[in-house]
Design a protein that fits this description.
Length: 308
Amino acid sequence: MSLLPSCLIYAPDFMTAAGGALTEVHHGRYQLQMQRLDADVALITGGGRGLGRAFAVALASNGMRVAVAARSRDQLQETVRCIRADGHAAIAVPTDITDEAAVAAMVETVETQLGPVDLLLNSAGAGPPFGPTWEQDAAEWWRTLETNLKGPLLCSNAVLRGMIARRRGRIINVASGAGIRSIPYMSAYVTSKAALIRLTEVLADEVRQYGISLFAIQPGTVRTAMAEELLQSEAGKRWLPWFQKIFDEGRDDPPEAGAELVLYLASGAADVLSGRFFAAPGSPADIDSHADEILKRDLNMLRMRFLG
């Protein structure tokens, strides 16, 4: 039963070429043009553990100066230690992302110490409560909405003002496949992720004119500490037994899959598809090769089908 390692350094083959602003690389049978991430600044919320840490380390190992934010100072310091041990720049900014004043102070700290934020990765998230919605404590249910939706909103608003002024920037929101379907007994999580996907679409339409791109992603089903908490909880065992089966049957995903997707979107290679939802695992080359079809058929968006 393994969780993400404390230090995860991941650099996929399409991001390892050295030097230059634009590099031609190969991934599978496709040839991609991808912008290097050297000297850009990334702010990752939820960067103290799990996928947030994996994303932070991957971005740093591919040239970005990284700031990680979360409520746990000790976990953030471990992420920073991982990144600095490999010779890259990183800072920790302990923050409650549901507090507007704290978020504003966080962005100011990042900009003072590292520079303007080029990439915001909203990775902080919460899962509980689980079980019949009518049996849940409404305050706990709403706290999940605040973490998964209000947090990304506050963080996005805080960085967008500068991005608009500079006419550049990217935001990646870590959503979930749960946001595009009904999953009983996970109403707080499902509702928050569906709203986050739609918020991504709306913001993308609003800021496209300023050269800013947004994406929502499903990073895969990874055995993180959050996933382990669900697996071990009484509510998870009772109401979501199918989740355990994913891991028992080896159908979970490696963290590298989500990191690869994040790196691809952060590179700017998919900016023409701003506002859309992408899921790992899957090859970024497939996104690149199907971009025209995605645009023509308006794919990878939340849509409702009507009769007639």
